[in-house]
Design goal:
Layout: E1 10-20, H1 40-48, E2 60-61, E3 70-82, H2 91-101, E4 107-115, E5 125-136, E6 153-154, H3 162-170, E7 174-177, E8 192-202, H4 211-216, E9 218-226, H5 233-245, H6 251-260, E10 277-286, E11 293-295
Parallel strand pairs: 3-10, 5-6
Antiparallel strand pairs: 1-3, 1-4, 2-3, 5-9, 5-10, 7-8, 8-9, 10-11
Length: 303
């Protein structure tokens, strides 16, 4: 954190929600140094330079996403310290200013809120929901409509056994050691997480997909909700549930995989492609003295 505000200046902390199409980015986190790769955070902080804060503005991201992963609504906190005599920006003015100065068309700030000075966007989050989109009926990725490319995982099948996937998903619900679904070698204090909700349901194509294409293509949504996830946990759980849907695994085998706590088992080493994954929402509960509940814009199932 930066030093105490200069005499007469006011430092204000904000929570901002933002979205992005992750195709062009090396993930959400900033890439420092002289590397050519760039993260969403790099563009957000570049836009924030135009706020003329006394101290450089740094975004503390709630939920890190990998290269190619998208976000319908991610969150971050930032501190803006205006010069002496200038009041803090109203949240709506801050959001508008950031959008005005963003230099990449695949990023947009959705909303901003004033929050207490000790608020932390990562640690205060009470819920995170991820959406994974699948497509069947399209045996090669280049057959997918251009408006859906990089937004779903194309499966070489005409259908999925959704009932079996739903049965398998029930084994993942609740509090478990999810070591089997984290990337091998991940360093975390504990691999125990609580999966509050998992669903498998029909999805919708983009309205820009032609009626002829819509007749043969089918889209499916997988959603996962937890306070936090292990590294690549969602993409690994998705890959296993897809294997069930394709008949390569029985639903009961998902329980066996979970109980093995082995990230190197032959069935759980596959990772679903990044381009089908969306961070759908980050929610925050009671904020103490603020005595309010903050949540990002709400979205239905993404089509």
């Amino acid at each position: 954190m930066s030093s105490a505000p200069a005499s007469g200046s006011v430092r204000a902390r904000y929570l901002v929600y933002f979205q992005y199409v992750g195709t062009d980015f090396n993930g959400v986190a900033a890439v420092r140094g002289t590397q050519r790769a760039v993260g969403v955070q790099n563009y957000l902080e570049e836009a924030a330079e135009r706020l003329n804060s006394v101290e450089p503005v740094r975004f503390t991201i709630s939920s890190r996403t990998d290269a190619g992963v998208h976000a319908l609504s991610n969150a971050a906190h930032l501190d803006v310290q205006r010069r002496s005599g200038r009041p803090p920006f109203p949240p709506e003015v801050l959001a508008e200013a950031l959008n005005t100065h963003l230099r990449h068309p695949a990023i947009r700030v959705l909303r901003a809120f004033r929050v207490p000075s000790d608020f932390h966007a990562r640690y205060a989050a009470t819920s995170r929901t991820y959406l994974y989109r699948l497509a069947t009926g399209c045996h090669r990725r280049d057959e997918l409509p251009v408006f859906e490319r990089n937004l779903c995982w194309t499966l070489p099948a005409d259908c999925l056994d959704v009932v079996a996937m739903q049965e398998a998903a029930q084994h993942l619900l609740g509090t478990h050691d999810f070591s089997a679904f984290q990337s091998a070698g991940s360093l975390v204090p504990s691999p125990v997480r609580t999966l509050r909700r998992v669903s498998v349901s029909p999805g919708q194509a983009s309205p820009l997909v032609t009626p002829e294409e819509s007749r043969k293509l089918r889209f499916w949504n997988l959603e996962f909700e937890s306070q936090s996830f292990l590294y690549r946990q969602v993409r690994r759980m998705t890959a296993v549930l897809v294997a069930v849907g394709l008949g390569a695994l029985a639903p009961a085998q998902v329980k066996t995989i979970l109980e093995s706590q082995d990230p190197l088992g032959k069935h759980q080493t596959r990772v679903a492609p990044a381009h089908g994954l969306f961070l759908k929402s980050v929610l925050y509960g009671n904020l103490g003295a603020a005595s309010c509940t903050l949540q990002g814009p709400q979205f239905g199932s993404h089509g």
